[in-house]
Write a structure and sequence with these properties.
globular; 3-stranded antiparallel beta sheet; 270 residues; alpha+beta
Length: 270
């Protein structure tokens, strides 16, 4: 039996200093099992570890260098445009900036650590019934199972986009970089690769820009978003097969119809 005093500790609400940035509040409130509070400069983990909100005064102007060195401020800087009213991505890649130490501490420092905390999702269990390995941390596996169960009720024309997932847990870097993919943490999934569009697959136009492409129905996207997953199709560097569990970016205080922080000039596809 858990002592009464320990129940008080376990059930204590997160603590915020008055000047806590909204991005930190969204993080803490989205991951209450692991994050216990914040102030103007610091994210506080429940195990007593503190993590800085910002690691520098200004980010690099080069996009790849920015992605390589993103801090928590960068991670929360672009507001994800949640909802079905969507034509083309605004400037920025909300969710693509990731502070690697945050995700390593949350899901695991290496393949073995992540692998020790996996659950099984039965993907489209009434039809496809494919077992997928997904992290149990933060209930990501339960969230993806809820996505799957809801997707199964879609009309066949929309469901065909998700009937062939290409994996969840794969410890690897993003191709051409040294950055760990979110697949490494077993909280993302690619679906419908043959029906998807990726910015590097699109031929640049006369101005050197890569026009936006998407074939995914918004019905599919809405279901993923409802359960805490963002969609790579809402990035300027679009990746329409890709969904990842990022409830902090869907928090009502941090989600928006347009990004709130512009990226440096020239950071769009091209």
């Amino acid at each position: 039996m858990i002592p009464p005093l320990l129940w008080v500790v376990l059930l204590a609400p997160p603590t915020f200093a008055p000047d806590t940035p909204v991005g930190l509040r969204c993080l803490v409130e989205s991951y209450p099992d692991l994050l216990c509070g914040a102030d103007a400069t610091t994210l506080r983990w429940c195990d007593g570890v503190d993590m800085p909100w910002r690691t520098r005064a200004a980010p690099p102007t080069d996009l790849e260098a920015h992605l390589d060195t993103a801090d928590l401020f960068d991670q929360m800087a672009d507001a994800y445009p949640v909802g079905p009213v969507f034509a083309t991505p605004p400037p920025g890649d909300p969710g693509r900036m990731r502070h690697a130490p945050f995700f390593k501490k949350m899901y695991g420092e290496d393949r073995a650590a992540v692998g020790a905390r996996l659950g099984t999702v039965r993907w489209l269990r009434g039809t496809v019934d494919l077992p997928l390995k997904v992290s149990t941390v933060n209930g990501a596996d339960r969230a993806l199972q809820a996505v799957s169960d809801e997707l199964e009720g879609l009309p066949a024309a929309s469901r065909r986009f998700v009937e062939k997932p290409s994996g969840t847990f794969v410890w690897r870097t993003v191709k051409g970089t040294r950055r760990l993919s979110m697949h490494s943490f077993a909280v993302s999934i690619d679906v419908g690769v043959a029906l998807s569009d990726y910015w590097k697959w699109v031929k640049p136009d006369a101005q050197g820009k890569r026009p936006y492409r998407n074939r995914f129905p918004m019905q599919v996207v809405e279901i993923f978003e409802r359960h805490g997953f963002i969609w790579g199709g809402k990035w300027a560097h679009f990746d329409t097969m890709h969904f990842e569990y990022r409830p902090e970016l869907l928090h009502p205080a941090c989600a928006a119809s347009t990004p709130t922080t512009p990226r440096p000039a020239g950071s769009g596809p091209g």
